[in-house]
Amino acid sequence: MILVVLALVGGGSAAAYAMEVGKTWDQKTVKLVEAFPAAAVRPEAAAPSEAPVAQNILVLGSDTRGDSNTTIDGLEGQRSDTIMVVHIPADRQHITVMSIMRDSWVDIPGFGEAKINAALSYGGVPLAVQTIEGMIGARIDHVAVVDFAGFRGVTDALGGVDVYNSTAFDSSKMKGHYFDRGMQTMNGEEALAFVRERYAFRDGDFQRARNQQEFAKGVMSEVMNAAILTNPGRIGGLVSALAPYLVVDSGFDAAYVGNLALELRDVTPTDVSFFTAPTSGTGTSSDGQSIVNVDWDAFVAVKSAFQSDSAEQFAALVPAK
Fold this sequence. Notes:
Layout: H1 2-10, H2 14-20, H3 22-28, E1 30-32, E2 55-62, E3 82-88, E4 95-99, E5 105-108, E6 112-115, H4 118-136, E7 142-147, H5 149-158, E8 161-165, E9 169-170, E10 178-179, E11 182-186, H6 188-196, H7 205-223, H8 226-229, H9 232-242, E12 246-249, H10 254-263, E13 272-276, E14 279-284, E15 290-294, H11 296-307, H12 311-317
Parallel strand pairs: 1-12, 2-7, 4-13
Antiparallel strand pairs: 2-3, 3-4, 5-6, 7-12, 8-11, 9-10, 14-15
Helix pairs in contact: 1-7, 1-10, 2-10, 5-6, 5-9, 6-7, 11-12
């Protein structure tokens, strides 16, 4: 959903954003007091520069964000159902989004091998950040935890969203509703059921990740059109609908987003690419858990792409799974 924020303020609407919704963003988003691990266990930060540098934003999605008014305490004990790394290159010409399967079997610092979504449960946002940074070999600059209910709010604020559905299914989240294959116009309740669904699919979370990516594309297409970008009232309504469902690090404020939006003003939905971190099928852990095996040989190229600020080139070679 962080792409929605960038879409709102990226397509030539930065001035309107700064004037109309910056205050709303800062007041309604919940700020994390502790979002990052100790510097000693993190990849090196980029050297200070007057020119833009690459940015990585970690997006964690969950059915509930817990009681996280001012600290991360309410986020510990939860597992992240959605994990995405949004890469914004130094040249600001495109955006690349990598989905990570929530059951990916990885090393969680201090806890050993486990499903990656357990990192949030074991050690809150800082441990989730440390785990992802260990995978990609690059620093996470900002974090957003999104309550899935935000999907519903933004969809309704837009008056519905057109989303491509690649696999027809009977919804387990919205009893009696059938999602046809092809382009669907969804309201908020339908969108929420769509992005949460996994039980209806033979490949479960893999299809859910694809659906979440398609939903993000649909929202961006709706948002980044002249009717909305030139209407400060609509922009304000959309940010108001999303912000209460976001928990972000303290640096992810209106000033940061507004500046990033200005730098990304020429980016369009066609400049945003999605891919899923390479996997080598599913399996069972030694303690009997159903897991997703990361293809670590293929992931070497992913790590190199993040480290060299060339993630979009890798994404072009990897079809969404």
